[in-house]
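Lab notes, practical 5.
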Amino acid sequence: MMKLGVNIDHVATIREARKTFEPDPVQAALLCEKAGADGIVCHLRKDRRHINDDDLNELKRSVTTRLNMEMSTDEEIVRIACRVKPRQTTLVPENRQEITTEGGLDVVRNFDRIKEVVERLLAEGIEVSLFIDPEKEQIEKTVLTGAKKLEFHTGRYAEAFNSRGIYRKELENLEKMVKFGKSVGLSVSAGHGLNYLNTKPVASIAGIYELNIGHSIISKAVFKGITAAVKQMKELIA
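Output from the prediction step:
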């Protein structure tokens, strides 16, 4: 059965709007696990705009499923990851001016640095995934870094679907790239921009191990509660 990783960054975003102590992203993570989430995702950004170091440390102590730390290749963040040792790290591009991650990691252009970081993380016993666009050249370079996992950025598909555009082409490409990724020995997951309306077609693609979803679940939780929101998404992708 396809797994669900829940990104709890936006719980911390709400907290940081008032620079206070609530809502607590760690408590949110535990509720997500109790509701059936297969893993917890958090992004420690260099500017600490939502998740901070204390959050990460407490998540490491508290999460009993799978802690997936999204991170850039910034040296400070790499050192923190090697110290904390989450179960998995996912390398993502990071732009201080962006609202959210705007695209996949360019492994082709930044191969040497990415390979170096992958090797350091693997040496610490940390699983590594690369967050990339569903493109053959990026997949081929991912293999050469030594990473055993990838996560496809589904933003182009989600934008086309949400705007009632022609999304079939993006969906077909995603399916094709999932098959290619699997054929070269990678474990394939997907995420970004997925919600309760556009997730089902992606969840129907054979070969995807896990979907990582955050904003939509936290948004739904505002009205239904986080337990109900996670359970509804789990049922949708089942």
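Observations recorded by the TA: The two ends are 7 Å apart (CA to CA). The CA atoms of residues 108 and 138 lie 6 Å apart.
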